[in-house]
């Protein structure tokens, strides 16, 4: 039996992990899915000052108060890029492995926003200004994004549209602060929207990818949507089971 902590990316809460979490529990594992502050059932707690540090504290407190050890810490997208490595950097003795779902750790001093192309940054900033009261990023047009995704059940898409919450913008703009303690931990990258070959091609030329080049990193390809917990939950759960 392994202990998993599952962290969702932008706009999502613990609910997004339900099929994966149920599968892992069925295999005998201890699974903790977490809604970060302002997301999921904790959407009412969102504030303009909800930032990356808030979300890091959410995870540190879960591990501390549930007395979790040898944790397989799984982060999707935003949570993989900045939350998971930050938690592991501060509590490396409690983490056994990091798993990045279609994501990778960003270097010290870089924010999640800086990973996006300039035109995407400008577009999102405008959405925050015009539709998010100046501090929230609205969820994307899920039905449009999912229009070419095969194998996505209608009820899953309906839940995605209904349960997604605006993302506090400060979580995207806060730079990550790392000491390097997390780098000793083994890592698995589950790649969905881009292949291993593309990652390896970018490692030497794009600074944001440099942490994906270490000897402790392994890769698994799971081609499909950027959100594999929705279109390929069983296969994702099997990969996570193997990772333990």
From TrEMBL:
Record-linked InterPro entries: AB_hydrolase_1, AB_hydrolase_fold, Sec-Metab_Biosynth_Hydrolase
Pfam families (alphabetical): Abhydrolase_6 (PF12697)
Gene3D superfamilies: alpha/beta hydrolase (3.40.50.1820)
Keywords: Hydrolase
Key word Transmembrane present: no
MF (Gene Ontology): hydrolase activity
Domain AB hydrolase-1 span(s) in chain numbering: 5-238
Protein name: Alpha/beta fold hydrolase
Source species: Streptomyces endocoffeicus
Phylogenetic lineage: Bacteria, Bacillati, Actinomycetota, Actinomycetes, Kitasatosporales
């Amino acid at each position: 039996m392994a202990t998993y902590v599952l962290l969702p990316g932008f706009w999502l809460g613990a609910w997004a992990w339900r099929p994966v979490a149920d599968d892992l529990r069925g295999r005998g594992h201890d699974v903790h899915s977490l809604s970060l502050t302002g997301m999921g059932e904790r959407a009412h707690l969102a504030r303009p000052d909800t930032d990356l540090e808030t979300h890091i504290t959410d995870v540190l407190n879960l591990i501390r108060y549930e007395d979790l050890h040898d944790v397989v810490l799984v982060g999707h997208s935003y949570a993989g890029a900045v939350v998971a490595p930050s938690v592991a950097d501060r509590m490396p003795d409690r983490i056994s492995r990091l798993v990045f779902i279609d994501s990778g750790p960003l270097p010290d001093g870089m924010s999640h926003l800086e990973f996006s192309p300039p035109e995407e940054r400008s577009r999102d900033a405008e959405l925050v200004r015009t539709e998010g009261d100046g501090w929230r990023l609205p969820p994307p047009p899920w039905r449009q994004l999912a229009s070419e995704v095969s194998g996505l059940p209608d009820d899953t898409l309906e839940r995605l549209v209904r349960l997604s919450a605006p993302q506090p913008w400060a979580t995207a703009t806060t730079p990550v602060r790392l000491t390097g303690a997390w780098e000793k931990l083994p890592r698995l990258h589950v790649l969905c929207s881009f292949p291993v070959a593309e990652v390896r091609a970018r490692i030497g030329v794009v600074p944001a990818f440099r942490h994906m080049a270490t000897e402790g990193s392994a890769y698994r390809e799971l081609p499909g949507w950027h959100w594999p917990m929705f279109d390929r939950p069983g296969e994702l759960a099997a990969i996570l089971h193997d990772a333990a």
